């Protein structure tokens, strides 16, 4: 019987429960991890990560383990879906926390190099003249006009600013030249007034005739509303790499899946990008995957293809470019293996 390590404390409870269920299945089967790897098609190193809570296994791995151990595939798939949602939420919270930490560090670094506030030096006033103490037994009455006034330190006056107007038009300039400059200024002012009148007049006519200002392109307004890191949405994502455009990772979910031989093919759908793509895992070099988008309304269907390019004989994965869809059930992914086996996904 394998000796399991303690699960990480920060692991989500649903993910931890799913991992414990996988451990129980392996223990009941009496198989070692090497045998589990041989029968499921996933490496021993991958199963060590899955069973120690360091990585959430793909649905294909969980279904393969259920078939090997005789467990109910449907019940285990349901537990996997709940764990996958919790795993995605945990990764999103971790990304938000790390972004907040980086922003705080950047603000602190900028504050260290910012200009220091100058401290005003205190103004020292000259001491007032002190009178000699009165003689004992003599009371002196000081009237208001006799009270010494405090001395105010004199403030040097700033020099008078130069008269730039005198430099602009010298006094000794000939009268004709000054008249020409004046006429030029008047003509320029009249031209500006005429241009403003034309602009205002055209704007008024446009309003009376029902003219409206041209609207901004849809792609510009759409990109302004996208989350940070997402570079396309809708038609602008067609034919592009989902990972490079920021549509993969925790922004995508599995909309359909199938097991073809020892390979696992699925439809990945991103709601924020409104696009889908096909992905194949645990495949061999040369295995192909394609994504088919069914036509909807006036929009024609589209097909994209991808191929695994890893070292032959080793498990690898691959994915296709994206196709534009309005719903996750409008796309189907199919795999064609070098062994001749074929299979397509079924929508969930």
- Per DSSP E runs of 2 or more residues, the count of β-strands stands at 10
What radius of gyration results from the CA coordinates? 39 Å
Shape: elongated
Structural class: alpha+beta
% residues in beta strands: 15-25%
Annotation field: number of helices: 8
Output the helix-strand order.
Answer: HHHHHHHHEEEEEEEEEE
Q: Estimate the mean pLDDT confidence.
A: 74
Percent range for helical residues?
Answer: 25-40%
pLDDT < 50 runs, ≥5 residues: 125-132, 134-147, 164-173, 204-222
Largest sheet: 6 strands, antiparallel
The end-to-end span amounts to 36 Å
Task: Give short descriptive properties of this protein.
single chain, 348 residues, 4-stranded antiparallel β-sheet
Secondary structure: elements and pairs:
Layout: H1 13-29, H2 33-40, H3 44-51, H4 59-69, H5 73-112, H6 164-168, H7 175-208, H8 218-224, E1 253-260, E2 263-270, E3 275-283, E4 288-293, E5 302-307, E6 316-319, E7 323-324, E8 331-336, E9 342-344, E10 346-347
Antiparallel strand pairs: 1-2, 1-10, 2-3, 3-6, 3-7, 4-5, 4-8, 8-9
Helix pairs in contact: 1-4, 1-5, 2-3, 4-5
Architecture overview:
This protein has 348 residues and is α+β, with helices and mostly antiparallel strands. It has 8 helices and 10 strands. The chain has helices spanning 13-29, 33-40, 44-51, 59-69, 73-112, 164-168, 175-208, 218-224, and strands spanning 253-260, 263-270, 275-283, 288-293, 302-307, 316-319, 323-324, 331-336, 342-344, 346-347. A hairpin with an 8-residue loop joins β4 (288-293) and β5 (302-307). α1 (13-29) runs parallel beside α4 and α1 (13-29) crosses α5. The longest helix has 40 residues, at 73-112. The chain starts with 12 loop residues before the first helix and ends with a strand.
């Amino acid at each position: 019987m394998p000796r399991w390590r303690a699960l990480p404390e920060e692991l989500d409870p649903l993910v931890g429960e799913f991992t414990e269920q996988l451990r129980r299945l392996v223990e009941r089967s009496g198989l070692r991890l090497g045998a589990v790897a041989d029968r499921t098609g996933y490496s021993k190193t991958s199963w060590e990560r899955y069973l120690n809570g360091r990585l959430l296994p793909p649905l294909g791995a969980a279904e393969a383990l259920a078939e090997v151990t005789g467990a109910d595939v449907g019940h285990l798939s349901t537990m996997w879906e709940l764990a996958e949602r919790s795993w995605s939420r945990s990764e999103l919270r971790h990304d938000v926390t790390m972004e907040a930490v980086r922003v705080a560090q950047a603000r602190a670094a900028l504050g260290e190099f910012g200009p220091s506030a100058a401290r005003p030096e205190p103004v020292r006033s000259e001491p007032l003249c002190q009178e000699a103490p009165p003689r004992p037994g003599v009371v002196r009455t000081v009237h208001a006009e006799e009270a010494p006034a405090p001395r105010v330190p004199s403030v040097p006056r700033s020099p008078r600013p130069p008269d730039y107007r005198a430099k602009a038009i010298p006094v000794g300039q000939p009268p004709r030249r000054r008249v020409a400059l004046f006429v030029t200024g008047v003509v320029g002012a009249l031209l500006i007034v005429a241009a403003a009148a034309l602009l205002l007049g055209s704007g008024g006519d446009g309003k009376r005739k029902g003219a409206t200002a041209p609207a901004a392109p849809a792609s510009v307004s759409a990109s302004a509303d996208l989350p940070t890191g997402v570079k396309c949405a809708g038609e602008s994502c067609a034919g592009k790499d989902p990972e490079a455009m920021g549509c993969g990772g925790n922004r995508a979910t599995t909309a359909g899946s199938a097991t073809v031989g020892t390979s696992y093919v699925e439809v990945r759908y991103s709601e924020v990008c409104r696009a889908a793509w096909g992905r194949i895992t645990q495949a061999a070099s040369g295995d192909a995957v394609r994504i088919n988008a069914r036509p909807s309304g006036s929009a024609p269907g589209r097909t994209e293809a991808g191929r695994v390019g890893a070292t032959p004989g080793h498990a690898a994965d691959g994915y296709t470019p994206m196709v534009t869809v309005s719903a996750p059930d409008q796309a189907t992914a199919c795999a064609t293996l070098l062994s001749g086996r074929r299979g397509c996904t079924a929508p969930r």
